[in-house]
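Hello again, I could really use a second opinion on something today. Take your time with it, there's no hurry, and the full record follows here:

___
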Amino acid sequence: MPEAPGPARTAMPVSVESRASWIVAVTVLFVIAIAYGGPLIAVVGLREIAEEMGGARSVPGLAFSLAWLGSAVGGIAMGRIAERIGVRWTVAFGACMIGLGLAISAGGEPWQLWVGHGLFMGLLGNAGINAPLYVYVSCWFDRRRGTALALISSGQYVAGAVWPSVFERTIGAWGWRATMLAFAVAGAIAIVALAMLVLRPPPEAPRALPGSPAAGPAPGARVLGLRPNVAMAALAIAGFLCCVPMAMPQGHLIAFCGDLGIPGSRGAAMLSVLLVCAFISRQIWGWVSDRFGGLNTLLAGSICQAVAMVGFLVTEDEAGLFLVSAVFGLGFSGLIPAYVLTVREIFPASEASWRIPVVLLFTGSGMAFGGWLAAAIYDHAGFYGAAFGAGIGLNVVNTAILAFLVFQSRSRPPLLVPAAA
């Protein structure tokens, strides 16, 4: 007698994660660490470059900002291009453009510094590396995506921990122009080699039944109780406001120490401490985001960053600034990967190739604006306290937006039906 059919069993979704996923993630970590070393030469040599260009720190400050802005703007187009031709080729192209940008910047004129950083290192260089690699790595993970994104985004802080002390010595010995030229050649060769050897196409994601949790949000569904583009706009604006204060200590800590009579080598060491702490704590924030979600992680990180920023207003001695730098690194480091994770959690996976670069456009623009704003306020007011105060104010607005989005996520269940037009 045939057995009566029983209820269908729900198969556990097959994970795309494997040993190869982590090899790819670690390789991307090194690629980003090398790529983001280039703009740091202008940070470490800010005072020397400014002295050769009339004394205004806003000149090299603007170059650093343009590198961030170009990377953010170009990421949208490069994300689409990487989807068509493969991330290996956008990364290799970006590495060559970073090298060319450094060579142009070494010319010594302000316009060469701005064009080299903004157009070549940013728009054509890091744009082909940063946003495409975030999307690429997110396709290799589904269970520990937050941890993986935290790992690769730490590349910028590995760069900040390793390169400032190296550049401080090479600039002192050879000058900032020779440092740029040497790094241009070495960096381009290293990144192209890693891209060609490791960055193969990601695995196909297993198919899930429409409407099941594994399928993720449906295209057109409301997001956090809001229309998708309204939620996207709120998240993007929050990202911009978050990254303005984030950029200020990173871009101006060495110059800030110089104004206080602290040697540049100690300021470079502080920046390294800040970014080493950021690297370590970012892995912890990645675990937190996998456990509690990207949006909750964003709110917690925003509050921590605001509290740490206050420390730069009230501390002027060397030992205190080492402590504040460490606390700041521990506080802010989980924010950028949490923005990317939040996009993957609340929007359809099919929209990741353009939504992630758009969010990174706003976070990168915030970094660019923050670096320039701190320099501009310093040139006007003559001290960094005014700049840090402005950054804290913008951070408070960011926290308010994120608190609203978290409230929306808890008060309204997600809908898997298209939103009304």
The radius of gyration is 22 Å.
